[in-house]
Amino acid sequence: MIRPAAVAGMFYEDSPETLRRQVETLFPEAAKASDAFGAIVPHAGYVYSGPVAGEVYARLRIPPAVILLCPNHTGRGAPASLDPSDAWRTPLGDVRVDRTLAARLAELAPSLTLDSAAHAREHSLEVQLPFLQVRRPDVSIVAVCLGAPDLALCEEVGEAVARLRDEQAEPPLLLASSDMNHYESRAVGSRKDARALARVEAIDAEGLFSTVIAESISMCGFLPATALLFAARAAGVTSARVVARRDSGDETGDTTSVVGYAGVIIER
Description:
By secondary structure, the protein is α/β, with parallel strands linked by helices. Helices cover about 40% and strands about 20% of the residues. Helix 3 (about 100-110) crosses helix 7, helix 8 packs antiparallel against helix 9 (about 205-215) and helix 9 (about 205-215) runs antiparallel to helix 10.
């Protein structure tokens, strides 16, 4: 069962050759890749958030498997879902789903449901795949979609992911897909993003969750990011660093209503 590309030609190029060139130009030449525990990467159209995503991916050594945590923009499907597909298709080819890892994660996090509806039209995970394919063509994934604002659920999934990672001879990379604050002025959005990112850098899962809600920060992937922070803390990771930030106004020139983007690397 193949999950077909849903946003090729919209969020990123649909021609294989053009897409490969597009992704390659987003990697900074001076960046050096190294091992990491995980990262937070944006998921807008490449013209907007691609430079931030490129800054992150250029700095990551991509292991054979990657666990991708994404938000649910469509509202479809289960509150916490594992995609049951065998592979995800992009213009660059098929990315295999590691069914063994996915089955083990389902054992470790019983709240996860095998469900394709949440993933069928979800762009936030799909747009990460061409970056991974260019960096490591044989990469496999586990696809997790979180749509319920439930701190205990984020903790369950995060701690399960950390345990799964610890069980593997070559631990998977953990990625959380998220944009930052939406559709406020650059000045307001930048302040809100800074508050959320301060909690991320401190590996403060509860703090990120509560700050986003209390301060009305429209960080669409705060649930995956919270789960990732729970995973990092369970693994004994103590800090993260922001490697890139921008907003949609850098492309459009309009700073009265922007979407923010941030790239974060969580060290091992």
